[in-house]
Write a structure and sequence with these properties.
This protein is an all-alpha fold. The protein has one domain. It has a two-stranded antiparallel sheet. Strands 3-4 form a two-stranded antiparallel ribbon. Helix 7 packs antiparallel against helix 19 and helix 12 runs parallel beside helix 14.
Length: 480
């Protein structure tokens, strides 16, 4: 009896570990708030992509929500557990699409042009599915690691996060947004209040119950209040749409003379999202397993499902291509949110998808979210984009990447310099290069080019192994 009592006391003294694993379902009220926080996190990038590519914002919100739900349900049906990822619009396709739509900010392209572009999104979805299927047949993570080892996926994730740093600072300062009427100092103050509040909530409310799972939402609210005090919000124009605003759905066409060109130029851009998606899966798998270990639960091992993850990416792109939304990717911002909040609940992400669908139909709700001032978004971006970069570093550390190996150094160095340097150093993040037809009218997209160069370098090293590797293999064989 004494032994049993001692064990009971030991269990009672263990700290309560807060957080949700992928198959956990929070209570309904909490799930709504957690889902809303995901929507707040994905909203700026998804809407910006829609505006830049000439797609209808309400349609993109609705269809990306539907695509997210389909991918989550697909993972649960396939393996009995959720892969907790949110799917939003991808920046990787902007160059190729804008060359076709000639989009003007805030003005949707004509329906026929959108329909032609959608054929390209179906192509990128198909390519993702085929690559994912090949990986599953070839042995899963081990097969992909040969082509996309952690030095590539980690460096790409780091590049995406840090490369977006200039965008975050531009949003925070109003550098590109005519901040003069309110003063640049006001923008900076609001941005830093948002940033510091979000960091404070995420650090000091960790393991403090449910409130500790909402730092980004609370940070956005705090920033919104600061922006209101600073006179950055005109509440008279916050709600201006009718209550119901039905999305405008368009459908792909394949008989246009430009369709083949679009399929090639847009479809091939999935090469930029495959390493990104793989890196996101590895990152989230690492943190999910860490939380499972803390809670004494069985590890999920999500990194084993690389092929399935890419197939789900393709499914999401196909849904977007069919109904008139932008091609997508799983969002690093929402990954960062999950790492910060320790909330990896699949049902919460499904709730977020449902909220996004509703936002596409309800004008006032979308107006309210859309009224979040730019410096508030900038403050959130500084933190979230930085965490994306840090997750890339964490991935390389966890996978024990040998950065004393000149081969690994070369691959990572090229990806980082081409990707980050090209993103912050050239207009539109395009490397100056002679136009290669309609696909790259402004040059080569920096992050995608860095990823491709890293993949090519890795293939060269696989085909022509360095002498020190051949010697190591020979010594190992002799010892056996």
């Amino acid at each position: 009896m004494a032994t049993t009592s001692a064990k009971s006391k030991a269990v009672a003294m263990r700290p309560v570990i807060h957080g949700y694993l992928p198959n956990d379902q929070p209570p309904f009220g909490k799930m709504l708030l957690l889902g809303l926080q995901h929507v707040v996190t994905m909203f700026p990038a998804t809407v910006l992509c829609a505006l830049l590519m000439g797609f209808h914002v309400s349609t993109v919100l609705t269809v990306t929500g539907l695509g997210t739900i389909a991918a989550l349900v697909g993972s649960k049906l396939s393996m009995g557990k959720f892969i907790p990822l949110y799917y939003g619009s991808s920046f990787s396709y902007i160059a190729a699409v804008v060359a076709i739509t000639h989009a003007k900010l805030g003005v949707a392209a004509d329906p026929h042009t959108l329909s032609v572009v959608q054929a390209g999104f179906l192509a990128t979805g198909t390519l993702n599915v085929l690559v994912g299927l090949l990986i599953r047949l070839a042995g899963g993570k081990e097969a992909l690691d040969k082509v996309l080892p952690p030095i590539i996926t980690g460096s790409v994730a780091c590049t995406i996060g840090i490369g977006l740093g200039a965008t975050a600072l531009s949003e925070a300062s109003g550098y590109d947004a005519a901040a003069a009427p309110h003063g640049i100092l006001t923008w900076w103050v609001v941005a830093f209040v948002t940033l510091l509040a979000t960091i404070g909530y995420s650090v000091y409310l960790q393991n403090k119950g449910f409130i500790g799972l909402l730092p980004v939402l609370m940070g956005a609210i705090t920033g919104y209040i600061a922006a209101a005090i600073g006179g950055l919000i005109n509440f008279g124009t916050v709600i201006h749409s009718s209550f119901i605003t039905a999305p405008i759905f368009t459908f792909p066409v394949f008989n246009d003379p430009a369709t083949i060109t679009v399929i090639v130029s847009v479809g091939i851009m999935c090469i930029a999202t495959i390493p990104e998606s793989t890196a996101h899966l590895y990152q989230i798998s690492l943190y999910v397993d860490h939380l499972a270990e803390e809670k004494g639960s069985q590890k999920y091992g999500l990194s084993r499902y690389v092929g399935l993850n890419l197939m789900l990416d393709g499914l999401d792109d196909m849904i977007n291509g069919i109904f008139g939304s932008t091609a997508g990717t799983n969002y690093g911002e929402n990954n960062s949110l999950m790492v910060i909040t320790r909330n990896y609940s699949g049902p919460a992400l499904i709730t977020a998808g449902a909220i996004a669908i509703v936002l596409g139909f309800i004008g006032p709700l979308a107006d309210i979210v859309n009224s979040i001032p730019t410096p508030v978004i900038g403050g959130l971006m500084i933190y979230l984009f930085g965490v994306i970069g840090m997750q890339g570093i964490a991935l390389m550390i966890s996978e024990k990447v040998n950065l004393f190996d000149p081969k690994q150094l070369a691959i990572g160095a090229v990806i980082l310099i081409v990707g980050i340097g090209g993103t912050i150093g050239f207009p539109g993040s395009f490397l100056p290069f002679p136009p290669l037809g309609i696909a790259f009218p402004y040059g080569l997209p920096a992050i995608a080019t860095g990823a491709v160069l890293g993949i090519l370098l890795n293939l060269i090293f696989l085909l022509f192994k360095p002498s020190y590797e051949r010697e190591a293999v020979g010594e190992s064989a002799a010892a056996d």
